[in-house]
## 1
Amino acid sequence: MKRYWGGMVEDGANCFYEIYDPDHKDFSPYGSKIIHSYCHAWSGTPSYFIRKYLAP
C-alpha cells in the first residue's frame, strides 16, 4: 500500500490514478499518457482502510 499509493503521493498526485505502475510510471492502458484517468474512485480504497482501521 505504501509503495503503490504512497508512490503516487510522492510523485505529486493530489488524487489517486486509475492505473499506476511504480516501475513504469508512464504506462497507460489507453496507449497515451494524455488519455488517462488521473482521478479514479476505485483507487481511493486506502482512504477507506485508514478511516476504518487507523483513525481514532
## 2
Amino acid sequence: MPIIKSAKKALRQNIARRARNAKVKNKVRALIKNLTKLVAAKNAEEIKKTLILAVKAIDKAAKNHIIPKNTASRKKSFLAKLANSGLEQPTKKD
C-alpha cells in the first residue's frame, strides 16, 4: 500500500479509471455479443440498429484511448462483415 500522500491519490485515481474503462469495454463486448446473436437469428432491423450502436461505442472507446485505434478499426471491420452476412438475402440459382 502507498505511504506517500500523492501515491495514495494516484492509487484512488487508478481504481476509478480502471472501473470506468472496464464499464466501457464491457458495453462494447455486450454489443458485439448481441450483434452475433442477432445475425444468427437473421433479424435484419435489429442487426442494423445494433451495428450502429456498436460502432458508436467502439469509436468513443478509441477516442478516449480505452482501446487502441487499430483495434477499434479491426472490430468495426469484423462487425461490418458479420452484419452484411446476416443481411444478405438468399439468391435463387437457376
## 3
Amino acid sequence: MYNFDQIIPREGTDSVKFDGMKRFYPDASDDAIPMFIADMDFAVAPEILEAMHERLEKKILGYTGIFDDSYYDNIINWYKTRFGLEVKKEEIVISNGVVPAVNVLVRALTKEGDNIIITTPSYGPFFGAIQQAEGRNALYNRLINTNGYYTMDFEDFEEKCKDPKTTMFILCNPHNPTGRIWTVEELTKIHEICQANGVFIVSDEIHADLTRSDKKVTPIASLFPDDKNIVTCTAPSKTFNLAGNGHSNIFIRDEEIRKAYQANGGRGSSNPLSVAATKAAYAQGAYWLDELREYLDGNFAYVKEFLAKELPDAVFTIPEGTYLAWIGLGAYGYSNDELEKKIGQGGVVIESGRSFVDNCDSYIRVNMACPLSVVKTAFDRIAKAVKS
C-alpha cells in the first residue's frame, strides 16, 4: 500500500542530513549519500500529512497546548496495545525531544559528584548530558561483543551500581547503536540490581516501535508497574519520521519527580502541527509502521548477504531493533577516523565508532531507513572504499 521505494529529493529543504552534510563531513565527496544522522528518507505516512494539512486549514498557528483528551487516549492505547505498558494521562509529560528530556532528568534527579552509568558503545548524547550537568561522572558498562551480538557485563554493572555515588542508569532499549532488544530476563536483572542499590532508571525507548517483524520490545516499566523510579522516554519522531517536529512524550509516574523535572526546565512547549501529527500517528499509523518494518527487514537481509560476499571479514549481526546497521571493520586495519574519511571520500557519509563514546573501535553505524536502491549503491561504494 505504501511506496518505500520512492526516491524523494531532500536537497533544499534545510535538511541537516543533506543540506548540512558537508558542514559536518567536509571531506565527503560532492555526490556522497548521507547515511549518518538517524532520520528516514521515506515519505511521512499520508494519514499524518493529511492531519497536518487539516490543521493548516485552520489558518492560525497560535500558542498551543493540549486540551483534547484524544491526544492522551491515542498514546495510552498505543502503548497498552503494542507493548502492554499501562500509562496514565497525568504521567505523560511533553518534551521538545528525548535528548532534551534526558538532559533535564540528569540535572533534576542527580547531584554534583554523582555517578551515572551508560552502556558502551553508547549513543553520544547520553554522555553529553552527563558532561553538561556540572560535576556528574559517567561510568561505562562495556557491553560484551560476541561476533556482533552484544550482552551486558552484569558483574561489572552490579559493581558500579554498588558504589554509593552511583544514582542513575541510562538504559537504551532497543540499544543504540548495537540494535539489541533487552530480554525480560535481562531487564529483570537490571531492575533487581538498580533497586537494591537505589539507582534510578531512565529508559530511552525511542526506537521501541522499530523492531524486526518477528521481534518485540518489552518496556522495563511494564514489568514493574509499581516502581516510581523508572522514567520512560518516548517519541513519535523515529517511528514516523517526525524528528523535525521536536515533540516527545516522557512517562513519569511519580508526582514529585514530575515536579522536579519541570522545575529544572522540563516544560516542553507544544506546536500545532506537532500535536496534530502525533495524534494522527498513534491513531492511524499502525499499518504504515508494520509495512515499514517489513521493508527494513528486506534492507537488512540484503546487507547481510552483501557483506558476506564482498566484505567477508566484516562483523555484522542483523539488529533486533532500530534501523541502524552496526558493522565492525577492524579486520581491514582502519581506525575510526580512517574509516569515516575513507568511506566519506568514497561517496557515503557514515558515523564511525568515534561518535559512540567507548568500546567501538573500527565500527561504523549506517542508517538503513532509505530505499533499497540507495542501500545497494551505498554499500557498493562502502565495499570499494574499504577494499581500495
